[in-house]
Amino acid sequence: MALAGAIDYSICVLNLSDKGMSDDRLTHLLTNAPEQSIILLEDIDAAFVSRDVTKENSIAYQGMGRLTLSGLLNALDGVASAEARILFMTTNYIERLDKALIRPGRVDLKEYVGHATDYQLQQMFRRFYPDEPESRAQEFSQMVMSLEQPVSAAQVQGFFMMYKKEPDCVVKNIKEIVNL
């Protein structure tokens, strides 16, 4: 959202796992997306069942969208040539993606967004609670880093949203962050 605001683009989120999503519908949506927009395709790894939906597996996937990898690739190639549009795809499982989907020329940049680092935790705390002393941000970061499992920036943001005006509660209830 920060990028969209900085370049004055709108954001279009497409749910590829929607039951009504088909190859034709996706092509239509991407073709008619507004210029100067960021198109977000979340969880691209869960968007389709196979490269092509065949007669043999159509009963097994009844009720699911008819989006195929082939249809997705064709739609992406069409939108890639459209000017003033930026396409983002997210996945938790890049290894599950077909190589044709993420080949150079179709995907210009791959960026891994891992777990929050000490620096990121402190920066997020400072931005969310600007009136708190820096030592409080360090304390928060140290407490998160000492937890048994790492956390994502999205978890931290969600946790801060639970305690918008209560930085003391953030530190006091730090163990809740792993449940988000």
From TrEMBL:
InterPro entries: AAA_lid_BCS1, ATPase_AAA_core, ATPase_AAA_CS, Mitochondrial_chaperone_BCS1, P-loop_NTPase
Entries under SUPFAM superfamilies matching the protein: P-loop containing nucleoside triphosphate hydrolases
Protein name from the UniProt record: Mitochondrial chaperone BCS1-like isoform X3
Keywords: ATP-binding, Nucleotide-binding
Coiled coil (residue ranges): none
An example Gene Ontology molecular-function term: ATP binding
Domain ATPase AAA-type core intervals: 2-113
A Pfam match: AAA
Domain Mitochondrial chaperone BCS1-like ATPase lid: 118-176
Family classification: Belongs to the AAA ATPase family.
